[in-house]
Design a protein that fits this description.
With 156 residues, this protein is of the alpha+beta class. It has one domain. The protein contains 3 helices and 10 strands. The longest helix has 14 residues. The chain starts with a helix and ends with a helix.
Length: 156
């Protein structure tokens, strides 16, 4: 059974707050759920682990990031690669541009790490303050599409 099918089944029975944790083959999806109802899912973390990234080079992470960026067109803001740490072999991607209002900036951040993880979080930052993780609220369809897109770009 695929990661998407397993996540769909898990969403049918889980009551938030909860941790969704499903595995298929070499891939594992872990998400900290804050809210789950018949239409939407709220989460503070969304991570696909795969040993297929265990030996990834910075160039491979950059290529995977570009593929993922091209797929994630349905989020509130477009996601683009912003920085690669060649030494640690980590690619950071963010909303470009972030969502801004009078007193805060909110944005998605996607991180691809050699060793085997692609993760997504939503952050909020107010002027003069440190950023904080905030729940991302998406429809169930978007949640499952995220799982499908992460799984599709991740080796394994």
């Amino acid at each position: 059974m695929s990661i998407v099918q397993l996540a769909r089944d898990a969403l049918q029975t889980v009551a938030a707050p909860a941790q969704l944790d499903v595995s298929s083959g070499r891939q594992r999806l872990i998400s900290a759920l804050d809210a789950v109802d018949s239409l939407a899912v709220g989460f503070t973390s969304f991570t696909l682990e795969t040993d297929g990234l265990s030996a990834a080079t910075p160039e491979e992470l950059k290529r995977l990031g570009e593929k993922l960026s091209a797929r994630l067109t349905y989020l509130l803001e477009p996601i683009s690669p912003i920085e690669i740490d060649h030494e640690q072999c980590v690619l950071q991607m963010r909303s470009t541009p972030p969502q801004r209002d009078d007193d805060q900036t909110t944005y998605y951040e996607v991180v691809l790490r050699r060793g085997g993880a692609i993760s997504l979080c939503r952050y909020s930052k107010t002027p003069g303050d440190v950023r904080q993780v905030i729940p991302a609220t998406v429809t169930r369809e978007v949640f499952l599409r995220l799982a499908a897109d992460f799984a599709a770009v991740a080796p394994g």
